Amino acid sequence: MGERSNWDSGPTDDVLQDRANALLEGSEFDPALGVLVARDAQRVVAGEMSQEEFGRRYHDAYVREFGRDERPDSPDPEARLELSTDDEPSQPLVVSRREALAGIGGAAAGVFFLGELWRSGGLRRLYGAVTPPAMDGVAAGADPVQYGMVIDLQRCDGCLFCVDACRTENGLSDGVLWPYVFAYEEPGDEDPRFLVRVCQQCTNAPCIKVCPTGARHRRLADGLVLTDYDVCIGCRYCEVACPYGVNYFQWGEPASYGGTYTGARRDARGIAVDGDPPMGVMGKCSYCPLRQDDPERRGSTACADACPMNAIHVGDMNDPDSAPNRYLAERRAENDGYLPTFRLLEDLGTEPNVIYIGAPPSSRAELVEGPVSYGAWGVVEDRRTVLEGPTPWFGRIGLGT
Amino acid sequence: MSTEVIAAPPRTDDTVGTDLSRRSAILRPLGRPSRTYLLVFAAALVGLIWFGQAWAFQLRHGLVVTGLSDWGTGGGVPWGLYIGSFIWWVGIAHGGIVISAAVRLFRMDALEPVARLAELLTLAALANAGMYIILHLGRPERIVTSILPNLPQTIRTSPLAWDVTVITLYFVLTGTYIALTIRHDLHEARARLPRAFDPLYRVVLVGYREGERKKADRMAFWLALGVIVLAPLFLHGGVIPWLFALLPGLPGWFGPVQGPQFLAAALTSAMGAVTVLAYVFRRLYRWDGLIDDEVFRTLARWTGLFALLYLWLQLQQVITGAAMAPTAPGSVAAAKLASPLFWLAVVLLGATIAHTGIQMLAPDLFRVGRTAGVAALAVLAVLIDKTLFVVDGTLEPAFGLYHGGTYTPSWVELSSIVGAFAIVVLFFLLATKALPLIELEEAET
Fold first, then answer.
1. What pLDDT band is residue A113 in, cutting at 50, 70 and 90?
2. Each residue of A230-273: pLDDT tens digit?
3. Which of A397, B92, B200, B283 ranks highest by number of CB atoms within 10 Å?
């Protein structure tokens, strides 16, 4: 992971580094600094880093590199370059600003400028108040944090505790099954096998690529693929692009269909990304981002907590020491180094971040009734059965006669 | 001017043939509205109002009032008739301006009498295509605030962002092209034009100068060149099929054949729609001398040829899906062959091809009315087949564990078809009273 150029992300560091190197060839300035600043400028735009933090972080590096830090974010107010002061005419200012930008590096400058433009409110005033979508980003050097799951299908017994726990925690509308458990049999099987279908948190996520608004995005902190409920226009392109069928649209007013949307489930960035979505907006299995924001509950999800078989393990798939990776290693050790694992529909190139322990269903797999039915939990399995709109006025007249 | 038309008994009050009478024939519809006109206008208005209340119902209660659902465990399809209709109207829009551009660039003089009707159809059909996108959305009120600010980011990867961009460009090109080519006519006929539309004429004629004709023609030539490259290669053979063809998880949509096939479908429906439109106007305004039989012969040849291409590309998909295909594409082909609607579309297109063939072999059998009827069947076939394509896509995913689903359009979705037709009818009723619908230059030849 990380080798492939990720075209749903911003320019990768490799690309930025190459560009910066090319632009700054023969200059005395350090292209690496430009790349770092550019990356964090993206974070500021995404609302994941405060302006003050941005200012503090590079102050020393700027002073070392350029002998002064004149940025508007500089923690040193004396040094800050003010854009309109009486004693400095605008013309020389533009020139000196240009010099400073040249120091940062052309590539970084472009991104930085856009970030500034956004933050200054220019675009926002033009198009109305819009939460900027978080940009997909890949951290420098080490692999980025990418949350995913290890799901032990050899342990899963199809009890559907995970389905019910998620529904309860997120207040989902009837028929919305963020985790869904398939019960199926291969030819010759006597007992059913299970497949727990959750969001696969793909590295190369088709849903992010196709979204025409940027509402479907990857959160930098943990790599979670989320939907900004305030930006989504409800075109359902993510739903048809996802090969796994994990997206569930809010077809009606949540309250009328068993849902409990409150609009209050905002993550640490202040973006509405979790819980039952509002009418006309897309939702999907989210890996409980509010839990991941909370140091006490990080690494847990409602479904993993509820699983009586301890089959679901959540964490950073790029960290060999994370809970899911440790679990994988333990299970492998128990089995003398051999453990069958797979990723779902991996040949579609989505680079899913869920590793299943067990065997994938074959093309001859047949769905069967599981040991516990959805009905027994009071869960609607076939959503179409509850998606009835209200009777139109002419229908009411018809009923009256 | 073909000899048959001159030989044909004059059905008009004017003696067709002299420039002056041709000119007055073109300007005849601009007079007082007839009773038929008012009746059709009222009927279209009722259709539009019906659709308006259906849309209001959907906005109030959400898309739950459609027949759509989630695919997978939801047992339905998230894209249905709205997207099928969107493809259909973009396809129809395609034809008008392409015919007009071809007349200009390749000197296809036979189609010159219907060039302006075709251009106007492009505008009305594109407006309908745009309306269907908005109709399809869960949160249409966010379309500007969510798409525009993020376009620099989304344009890199989202086929829907490409679509919005290319369709907007196409709309602007078409509008500019029509404005450029109509200015001369409006100026010439100003005295005969109804006062009611004066503000419109003032806008279109802003800065008009006597000698601008040559320059405007040159500009229109380059615009036509732009349109004729953009529309087939990047719109209907490009960003529209790429909405579907790039998705890895749905084998019914994925694959390079969609580009050529969407283009063939678009051109079939476009040529067919222009045929029907030309027939209606010829009948209503007794324009037998202006829109002569040769127009219909030419249009029928093109409609038949594109329908043949369309069916042939369908055959390519069915054969590769039915012979030795992997599991998922195999079930797509099987589902297609099992659907009665698929076969209905095949039969309708087959009828169009057969009709063209017979007419070419036995020119005596040619009838304008029948040609228009068959063209209408081809247009209908494209709507059926494209909606089926959209629906089948999510019902046959690569993830084969899901046990399929069903889709039946609701009354709200069906009402949109009535509404879209009403919009086209009203548009042409107004255009009939406001503009010369055949280029006056045509009368000067």
1. low
2. 999 999 999 999 999 999 999 999 999 998 887 778 999 999 99
3. B92
Q: What are the counts of helices (DSSP H) followed by strands (DSSP E) for chain A?
A: 14, 11
Question: Pick the residue with more confidence: B2 or B331?
Answer: B331
Q: Among A92, A127, A162, where does a domain finish?
A: A127
Residue A155 lies in a domain: yes
Q: Are residues A283 and A370 in the same domain?
A: yes
Q: Determine what percent of chain B falls in helix, strand and coil, rounding each to the nearest 5.
A: 80, 0, 20
Residue A223 sits in the same domain as residue A118: no
CB B83 within 8 A of CB B404: no
Together in a domain, A98 and A160:
no
ipTM value, please give it. 0.91
* Rg (alpha carbons) of chain B, rounded to whole number: 23
Across the interface, of A130, A248, A249, the residue whose CB is closest to B149 is A130
Does the structure show a pLDDT above 90 at A98? no
Give B351-396 pLDDT, tens digit per residue: 999 999 998 899 898 999 999 999 999 999 999 999 999 999 999 9
Residues 6+ apart with CB under 8 A from A120: none
In a domain, A216, yes or no: yes
Query: Taking a C-beta distance cutoff of 8 angstroms, is the pair A228, A131 a contact?
Result: yes
Residues 190-249 of A with CB under 8 A from B: 195, 206, 208-215, 231-237, 239-249
* Cβ distance of A232 and B154 shorter than 8 Å: no
Total domains, chain A? 2
Binary contact (B64, A7; C-beta < 8 A): no
CATH of domain B3-444: 1.20.1630.10
A263 with A300, same domain: the answer is yes
β-pairing, A180-185 with A193-197? antiparallel
User: Please, what is the Cα angle at B416 between B155 and B344, to 5 degrees?
Assistant: 95
CB neighbour class for A112 (10 Å; exposed up to 12, middle 13-18, buried from 19): buried
Closest CA relative to residue B224, chosen from B125, B102, B117: B102
Dig out the tokens for B281 from the structure. 């106007």
Three-state DSSP class for A271?
Answer: coil
B259, B242 Cβ separation under 8 angstroms: yes
Assess if residue A6 is contained within a domain.
no
Ordered alpha helix ranges (H), B29-158: 35-61, 81-106, 115-136, 143-147, 151-154
Provide the residue range defining the domain that includes A30.
13-127
B348 contacts B381 by C-beta, under 8 angstroms: yes
Same domain for A152 and A117, yes or no, is no
Confidence of residue A388 (pLDDT cuts 50, 70, 90): confident
Inter-chain touch A384–B403, beta carbons under 8 Å: no
Distance CA A95, CA A27 (A): 18
- H-only helix segments in A31-105: 31-45, 51-57, 59-66, 90-104
Q: List CB contacts (< 8 A) between B158 and chain A.
A: 209-212, 237
Same structural domain, A28 and A103: yes
A22 and A171 part of one domain: no
Residues of chain B neighbouring A346 (CB-CB closer than 8 A): none
pLDDT exceeds 60 at position B185? yes
Percent share of chain B, pLDDT over 90? 68
Examine the pLDDT at B93 and tell me if it is beyond 50.
Answer: yes
Quick one: pLDDT band at residue B12, thresholds 50, 70, 90? very low
Quick check: is A46 in a domain?
yes
